[in-house]
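TASK: fixed-backbone design
INPUT:
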């Protein structure tokens, strides 16, 4: 097997917000093509492109109406094939988004399915009769607020949707559904696509007993269903393995102790998974307000979770490493300092992530230290935010508007979806017209052009880290050991390969912190550092200071 992705750094593009070339305010495929040289300069090896298929855009393309057609909003199929070819010429791989837990309700399969109980597509989705009192088949919730069931008048049944009601869940029990999906994957393979990021792939198998959840409208019982491994293995045998396509599956419920079941090469399921555990260290668990119940982030918890994944997958799987994506806020705004120490903080997070064993994923704008905007509630676009606002603030009234907005400013998905900030011209160089979603008003100072001219360039720092991933065997192969795990501010670990030891140190506070005494005595060289004037290990760590120091094993 060709494990090219182990030495690779991926870059995620959220096409709507990346680069608009035809002046309609929406990013497009030609906009990605135009920026290939930029991405090449950054040094990334593969691009994961969020969905660009035909879609009514209820969930920004995660609601697909036709898997084989590019949405005219983004361009056309020819342009996509061209993009794949041009990326390949530049030695970059293309990974598409595979959204096959659900489709759009506009997908022809669903349009047919809802017509009757006895047609070819009837069982493509999950339909159930109402309870005798007319209510939903069970109390499951949708991630976007309210019930996971919606009544369909024409069919006189409820259908299941883990997300918006316009995103009906597919019925993977039906072999025809699976073979349609595999065919679609082969179609894109024939166009040159190198792999897949798999949207909530761990939700494809449903618990067919449909047991009620302990609390209504929650989303337990929606992950890791009874046939999940079987379906994923089948997909591996049908498509991934024979066509050597890379796969990284989204796995919200995986724990470090069971994650290997999806990525152990011998099991022939997936290459990597995106896990969520480390992203929940600022969440109050089990709270009535779900993801909106926040607490200050717990650094020791973050370190221990990342460390346990390093340990558990070592030798039997491979980690996907990330802090940001289109569902996550800007990390420096969420867990750090996006003002006084914006450069230091952005590079500190980058250092600890890229120093780990696994494959790093950089999300557009992360490489220039973009930040969360603080919009008013009605300025956001996201269906998740709107649905949850309706549910928690308006209906349940378990959280006040003020508290909800404070959480939104920290974690809502739209934080990462503001248009890419290319320069300080009108509309940030993203578009000639007003973009589909508000720009972060800080674009005149935070943008690619300004960053590249700055002495403190986040981009240049990423460039160096990415180069290290390519050249240093230690980063791919070296053993990992977490040090000082309960230290509340410093994230310090060690990577060892043959006789070389690298110490990765980062201070996640805006105060000076002591470098532990035994590390002060080390002799060696700096591999990378975000305070250029640092010369020895003897100083304390400045606010958000990060560095990698290489020594020989003694
Ligand atoms: O996200 C799946 C997922 O688990 C989300 O519910 C996530 O926990 C939440 O959005 C965090 O706030 C995937 C896609 O990445 C997301 O963009 C889609 O909306 C969702 O699936 C449905 O396709
Ligand atoms: Ca456009």
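OUTPUT:
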């Amino acid at each position: 097997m060709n494990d090219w992705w182990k030495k690779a750094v991926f870059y995620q593009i959220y096409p709507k917000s990346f680069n608009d070339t035809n002046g309609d305010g929406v990013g497009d495929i030609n906009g990605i093509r135009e920026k290939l040289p930029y991405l090449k300069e950054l040094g990334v090896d593969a691009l994961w492109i969020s969905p660009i298929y035909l879609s009514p855009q209820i969930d920004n393309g995660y609601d697909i109406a036709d898997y084989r057609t590019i949405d005219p909003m983004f361009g056309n199929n020819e342009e996509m094939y061209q993009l794949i070819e041009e990326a390949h010429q530049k030695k970059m791989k293309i990974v598409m988004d595979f959204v096959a837990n659900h489709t759009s309700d506009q997908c022809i399969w669903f349009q047919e399915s809802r017509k009757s109980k006895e047609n070819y597509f009837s069982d493509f989705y999950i339909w159930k009769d109402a309870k005798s009192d007319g209510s939903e088949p069970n109390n499951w919730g949708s991630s976007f607020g309210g019930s996971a069931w919606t009544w369909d008048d024409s069919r006189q049944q409820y259908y299941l949707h883990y997300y918006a009601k316009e995103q009906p869940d597919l019925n993977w029990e039906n072999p025809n559904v699976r073979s349609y999906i595999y065919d679609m994957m082969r179609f894109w393979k024939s166009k040159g696509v190198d792999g897949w990021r798999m949207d909530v792939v761990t939700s494809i198998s449903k618990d067919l007993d449909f047991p009620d959840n302990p609390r209504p409208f929650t989303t337990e019982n929606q992950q890791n269903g009874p046939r999940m491994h079987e379906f994923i293995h089948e997909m591996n045998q049908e498509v991934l393995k024979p066509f050597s396509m890379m796969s990284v599956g989204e796995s919200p419920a995986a724990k470090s102790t069971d994650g290997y079941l999806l990525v152990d090469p011998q099991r022939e399921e997936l290459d990597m998974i995106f896990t969520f555990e480390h992203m929940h260290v600022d969440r109050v668990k089990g709270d009535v307000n779900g993801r909106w119940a926040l607490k200050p982030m717990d650094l020791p918890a973050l370190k221990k979770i990342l460390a346990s994944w390093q340990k558990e997958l070592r030798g039997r799987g491979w980690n996907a490493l990330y802090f940001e994506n289109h569902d996550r806020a800007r990390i420096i705004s969420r867990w750090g300092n996006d003002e006084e120490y914006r450069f230091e903080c952005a590079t500190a997070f980058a250092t600890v992530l890229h120093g780990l064993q696994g494959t790093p994923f950089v999300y557009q704008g992360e490489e220039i230290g973009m930040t969360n905007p603080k919009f008013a509630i009605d300025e956001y676009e996201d269906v998740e935010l709107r649905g949850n606002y309706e549910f928690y603030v308006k209906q349940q009234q378990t959280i006040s508007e003020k508290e909800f907005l404070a959480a939104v400013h920290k974690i809502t998905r739209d934080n990462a979806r503001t248009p890419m900030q290319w320069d300080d011209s009108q509309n940030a160089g993203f578009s000639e017209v007003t973009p589909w979603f508000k720009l972060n008003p800080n674009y005149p100072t935070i943008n690619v052009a300004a960053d590249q001219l700055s002495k403190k360039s986040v981009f240049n720092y990423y460039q160096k880290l990415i180069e290290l991933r390519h050249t240093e065997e230690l980063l791919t192969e070296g053993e990992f050991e977490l040090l000082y795990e309960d230290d509340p501010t410093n994230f310090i670990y060690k990577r060892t390969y043959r006789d070389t030891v690298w110490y990765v140190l980062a201070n996640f506070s805006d105060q000076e912190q002591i470098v532990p005494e035994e590390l002060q005595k080390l002799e060696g060289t700096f591999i990378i550092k975000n305070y250029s004037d640092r010369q020895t290990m003897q100083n304390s760590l400045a606010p958000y200071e990060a560095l990698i120091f290489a020594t020989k094993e003694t």
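COMMENT: The chain is about 25% helix and 15% strand.
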